Amino acid sequence: MNRIRESSRLDDYLEHTEEVDFRHHTIQEKITELHGRSPDDIAYVKAAFEFVRDGISHSWDIRSSRITRTASEVLLYREGICYAKSNLLCALLRGRGIPAGFCYQRLTLGDTPDTGYAVHALNACYIRSVGKWIRLDARGNKDGVDAQFSLNEERLAFPIRHHYGEKDYPLLYKAPHPKTMDVLLHHTDCKQMYLHGLPTEL
Fold first, then answer.
1. Which helix (H) or strand (E) holds 66?
2. What is the rounded distance in angstroms from the CA atom of residue 124 to the CA atom of residue 141?
3. Short name of one Pfam family for this protein (predicted)?
4. Which pLDDT band, with edges at 50, 70 and 90, does 22 fall under?
5. How much is the average pLDDT of 90-94?
6. Are residues 40 and 96 in contact, defined by beta-carbon separation less than 8 angstroms?
7. How far apart are CA 12 and CA 40, in angstroms?
8. Is 50 within 8 Å of 139 (Cβ atoms)?
9. Cβ-contact 97, 161 below 8 angstroms
10. What percent of the chain has pLDDT over 90?
């Protein structure tokens, strides 16, 4: 699917925001650490993606009640759901001058439609050296989920199953969708939020 950019200006995908707070000293420290091991942009994007994918736990996987939202919170507590983890990956990329934004899917909450639906967040970034946007899903791998960095064929966490009513939203957002941030702001227990509070569509 071709991505439709919300903005034609690359600079809009480099903005510091409340959620994508890459100027925070802890984010800057992590950027410096990752950049020291990965000097070129492709290596850096891969390293940042793999850090968020593997180094930050998905809150549901560890059955945590904690809710994180801003990139610096996610880094501090080392956990978050996909909405929060995508904020951190975006911050690590933008803080290195790599344009990054947000993409969304509508997926079944469990394995089948009877479990209901939820909006899932992932990222896209622009790699100047190859002149293309790529999508990355740092949700976190587990049995049945194997998201990988790839410049060519996408290797995302979840394939879209159209026969189950799942969908890939085509828009590449410059900021986290308000529905995803509102749910993080207005809940206090992540397990309850994950089961009963996630938006079902954009």
1. none
2. 18
3. Transglut_core
4. very high
5. 98
6. no
7. 22
8. no
9. no
10. 94
Tens-digit pLDDT profile for residues 116-155: 999 999 999 999 999 999 999 999 999 999 999 999 999 9
Any idea what DSSP says for residue 8?
Answer: S
Q: What angle do CA 107, 101, 20 make, to 5 degrees?
A: 105
Q: How far apart are CA 44 and CA 93, in angstroms?
A: 8
Q: For all residues of the chain together, what is the average pLDDT? A: 96
**pLDDT for res 37:** 82
**CB-CB neighbours of 198 under 10 Å:** 21
- Which domains does the chain possess? 4-136+154-196 (3.10.620.30)
pLDDT at 1: 59
Q: Helical H runs in the chain? A: 25-37, 41-55, 71-77, 82-94, 178-185, 190-196
Sequence-distant (≥ 6) Cβ neighbours of residue 191 within 8 angstroms? 60, 63, 64, 65
CB-based contact 58:79 (threshold 8 Å): yes
Quote the CA–CA distance of 66 and 74 in Å, as a whole number.
Answer: 10
> Which residue type is seen at 180?
T
Q: Which residue in the block uniquely carries the two structure tokens 């059955």?
A: 63
| CA–CA separation, 100 and 7 (whole Å) | 12
pLDDT at 160: 96
